[in-house]
What we know:
The complex is a heterodimer. By secondary structure, chain A is an alpha/beta fold. In chain A, 35% of the residues lie in helices and 22% in strands. Chain A contains four helices and six strands. Chain A has helices at residues 13-25, 67-75, 101-112, 132-150, and strands spanning 2-8, 30-35, 49-54, 84-91, 116-117, 122-125. In chain A, strands 1, 2, 3, 4, 5 and 6 form a six-stranded parallel sheet that branches. Chain B has helices at residues 15-27, 44-48, 55-58, 61-70, 90-96, 125-132, 156-166, 179-186, 207-214, 232-235, 242-257, 346-349, 355-373, 383-390, 398-410, 424-432, 436-439, and strands at residues 7-11, 32-36, 73-76, 99-102, 108-109, 122-124, 148-152, 191-195, 219-225, 265-271, 273-279, 286-291, 299-302, 305-308, 312-313, 336-338, 341-343. Chain B has a six-stranded mixed sheet, with helices on both faces. A six-stranded parallel sheet of chain B has the order 6-14-7-8-10-9. A three-stranded antiparallel sheet of chain B has the order 11-12-13, with no helix packed on it. The longest helix of chain B has 19 residues, at 355-373. Chain B is globular and about 70 Å long. The mean pLDDT of chain B is 92.
Amino acid sequence: MKITILFGTESGNAQLVSEDIADALRGDHTVDVHDMADFPVSDLDAGTLYLCVCSTYGDGELPKSAFPFFRGLQESQTSLEGVRYAVFGLGDSDYIYSYSLGSEIIDKSLTAKGAQRIAEYGRHDAAAGEDPSPIGVEWAREVVAEFAAVA
Amino acid sequence: MTGISHSIAIVGSGPAGCYLAQSLRREIPDAELVVIEKLPVPYGLVRYGVAADHQGTKAVSRQFDRLFDREEVHFIGNVEIGNVGGSISLDELRQMFDVVVLATGLSDDVPLGIPGSDLPGVVGAGRVTRALNVHPLTPTDGMYAGESTLIVGAGNVAIDIARLLAKTTAAFSGSDVDDELRHAITKDLRRIEVVGRSSAGQARFDLAMLRELGQLDGVAFEFHEASSPPTGDEMAFVEIDADEAIAKRKLLTEIATREVTNPRVTIAFRFGLIAEQILGEGHVERVRFRASDGLGEAVEIAANSVFSAVGFRQAADDRLRRDTLVSSIALPEEGRLDAGLYCAGWLRTGPRGSIPTHRSEAKRIAGMIASDLTELASRGTSGLEALRRATRSSSIGWSSWLSIDEYERSHAGNERVRAKIRSVDTMLKLARNPRMADAHP
């Protein structure tokens, strides 16, 4: 299976989780990891499973590295029908109002262009103190299993 | 390039130093990278400056653990670099390594600099944050808030202090706060004044920080503005986001009008006031302010204690003063001080920018160093080995920190993530004899 992990990060935590997910999946799949800042929307294709790992910044805003991808989605005239993705949001429930909202902005933008979100919406709460990497890896394995079942 | 690749020493293991190590590892995979820390324990501001209840922010340390665990970045703790009194002078360090980067931060509170600011009962916000984070070199004496306290400043640090003082013990679940000290400071506290010089809309705090404060149980809020809020026209002339200013004022109004029955603590926000003098007989009793618009009347606010949260600067006893290190080829604003000598983080920028800002800054500085290194021959010897030889009796390495870390986690109290060790001696004993961890609590 071809899997592309796209991360949106401010502090680097989402990148770390993405690289750990990639390491865990690499044995069985072809996995690429890209910063959303360097990934053109026009590269999204129907044959690949996209795992979007995105944090939240400020008062529920996108992290800096997700902005170019978000703008690309806003400006894109092309339908993303057939593109399938799953979302893993990193947040901090100390800031309950904005908890995990950044990833939701990416989710809504992809859906708005016709892409289809599959599987569980993964979330990690930094305030809970658990390491996000194993939680992200477990989430990714479930997504991959579900994608394999429908593909 | 000669035999071995370039060796790079980063002085300071706070977020700026560790982000730089991370970027340098990606930029120059074969460089020898060493992070040197004055204390036996790593992470500087992440461990001691980020409020004890913001574990989500502290979790950035997982990225840094990775550098030392797996990516061949070397940690050398308990080594202070300084030309006067350090264990190794900067010149000596520069002879060992091809590149030295100073990322020692700004740890000292900017003093209020007004009459009365040396009265007992006046404490810097950074000092109390560090003390509640169990910083070994931060004295905890004189930190009693009394029944009412006043925080000068209205940035995120002021909000941190208000929150640390107003929260219940139970609400510190999952933190590593010093409970005993927090109780000693706050046991009689009923009222917190947060006083800013700007208007409410221009205040420096982030909305998310105020929202978090606004959710505390048993806390009532007041919102006072000395001068009339600026009109839309006036706002066009100041450098603020008008939407953000409106949102800040709206949120303050909203939390101040919320009904709270029998509040445990009241937090009063006041804006447009400049502190002029702290008054009291032998101890803080009240603070006098003038209106920052020059029109309003002077006011006096009673308080048993004052926390100053108006910024950070280099500590007076800091052994590496940036202003004395700048050479003729320096571009200090870009981070280059001399050939092979750089600075990063708050030492470079001043006390501006959040932790993640310094991640992008680190990428830029790492790129600059990598490009400079194409012109600089490696001296071909290991800086790490030379430094270890020179500090053999005192320095400790990563595995020692892991022993201390394990001890702190395993001794955490109920609902706490770790019990930090305050004494450097105890840290060093644990570092040298990890089995001590089993011996006594």
